[in-house]
Amino acid sequence: MPPTLASVVRNTSLHLTVLAGADHLERPVRWVHTSELDDPTPFLEGGELLLTTGIKLGRTAARLQAYVHRLADAGVVGLGLGVGLSHTEVPQPLVDAAAQRGLPLLRVPEPTPFIAISKVVSAALAAEQYEAVTTSFEAQEELTRAALGKDGTTAVVRRLAARLGGWAALYDGSGALSVVAPDWAARRAGRLAAEVDRLRRRPAPSSAALQGRAPGIDTADEDYVVVQSLGADRRARGFLAVGTEDRITPTERYVLNAAVALLTLTLERSRELRQAEERMGAALLRMVLAGEVATARQVATGLFGGLPEGTVRVLVAGAGQGVDAGESLSELGDRAEQAGSRVGEKLLVAREEGTHGPRLMVLALDNGAVHRACLGVVEEHEGLSLGVSAPAALEDAGTAHAQAERALAVALRGGRRSVDHEEVGAGSLLPLLGEDAVTAFAEGLLRPLRDHDRTARGDLVASLRAWLSRHGQWDAAAADLGVHRHTLRYRMRRVEELLGRSLDDTDVRMELWLALRSGEE
Fold first, then answer.
1. Is the pLDDT of residue 401 over 50?
2. What are the two backbone dihedrals, phi and then psi, of residue 494, each rounded to the nearest 5 degrees?
3. Could you tell me which residues are beta bridge partners of residue 309?
4. Which of 426, 403, 389 is closest to 312 using CA atoms?
5. C-alpha pair distances (Å), 100 with each of 6, 18, 65, 78, 106
6. Does residue 287 surpass a pLDDT of 70?
7. What is the pLDDT of residue 219?
8. 416 - beta bridge partners?
9. So which domain of life are we looking at (predicted)?
């Protein structure tokens, strides 16, 4: 702890007397400054014990009061007046002004040189710095041993909380709480979700200090909270939060920084291990998609902990042309793995370069934690889309993959965040076709009819639509149009003449109906 005015006053060799501000002696003293200026504030930083003989202070109450106000406003923690030179005793107006502002005022007797006070404070500051360095090294060694142990990250969080005399919490890359110490702090740590989420959207490393009450915590529980993102390449791999009763000291800041460095190193090391596991998972997924399920299961049992058991779905994520989805796909993969890890759900993930850019494939349990996490990520990222297969057995994953790819194509073409295969199978054929190609086909096929309708009577396009929608039933279609069936027959003959095609041909009817529907999509 830094020296305080109280510790300076208690030094009997200085013979100091407190004349005012006795209730504020616990203020820390950052330095001792001697000045005979009427206004020394331009040369002060705050936290000083100012010593003066008062040569230029004057003796009027107004000047003395103004002097005290300047010092108090500048953050001076105490004023020492040396008697015996310009003042035989401390002026009462100075005492009154100091008492009014709550500024501790010390009487320095003539036998006590100012340099003696400076030496006492300097020695205390040096001792504080030595203690800080010693404590920091001890804490770093303790935290390093903890990080190298069996429960590395958990042990670091627990030791950090004990060192700070407060609580500490570790969150994974998605912002989910993974470790908290002591156990009673779980409620407090859980209420920092919004702050962690804000940091998750900023480049790492980033930090935030919440002075006073942590958000959402009962008014009876006041904390000084610091939240720090953990990551070495601008991407947060996790988050560390600590809560203490008071603002953390410089020594505690060193300890916190050491913990941040160790946890970042641990998470980066874990990331390298995860990357190796991802490569293994990608190879297993490709084996499963190729129909080599038995071989994949045999390999996975020994090295990967097994394959997903039960009904699965294949999810394929990607982005449209011109959209850089690299970071979004990486986050999708991370969040999927974190979701699976929290509940012990197996999944397989692989990244590949598709015809229209990178794709991420995920094989996971139907409607499981991983499936739900993937749907949540695509909702957060503009331009990212997800295609989801129908539920399938693991042996049918190849078919499910094809379904997911088709669903993704529909999602990208329609600008949708996600599309299930069931929607594709139950919906129109048009979303599966290239928009530009369908439009060009429809315009070319129907142009003769539209040219006719612009220059003559007959409403051939509307009549054709009504007739096709009624499957060639003349009376029903004529009733829809409000014309006689003979009129409708005449119009359909004109359609055949202009198109050069027979409406008796089923293929011609299908093409015309597709062309008409494309204008409605």
1. yes
2. -65, -35
3. none
4. 389
5. 20, 15, 9, 14, 15
6. yes
7. 38
8. none
9. Bacteria
Please work out, in degrees rounded to the nearest 5, the angle formed at the alpha carbon of residue 433 by the alpha carbons of 432 and 437.
Answer: 165
Structure-token match 């800080």, residue found: 132
pLDDT at 218 (0 to 100) = 44
CA of residue 485 relative to chain centroid, distance: 67
Which residue in 34, 25, 72, 73 sits closest to 54, CA to CA?
34
CB atoms closer than 10 angstroms to residue 84: 13
Rounded to an integer, the average pLDDT of 464-476 is 89
521 — pLDDT class (breaks 50, 70, 90): very low
Q: What ranges make up the beta strands (E) of 206-294? A: 207-210, 224-230, 238-244
Q: What is the mean pLDDT of residues 261-274?
A: 73
Q: Which amino acid is present at 130?
A: Y
Question: What's the angle, vertex CA 11, arms to CA 9 and CA 12, rounded to 5?
Answer: 105
Residue listed under structure tokens 């006073």: 212
| Token duo for residue 246 | 């008071």
Residue the block writes with tokens 């070319």: 444
Provide DSSP, 295-361: HHHHHHHHHTS----SSEEEEEEEE-TT---HHHHHHHHHHHHHHHHHHT---EEEEEEETTEEEEE
Residue by residue, DSSP assigns 16-39 as -EEEE-GGGTTSBP-EEEE---S-
Q: Compare 255 and 441 and report the one with higher pLDDT.
A: 255
What pLDDT score does 477 carry? Answer: 92
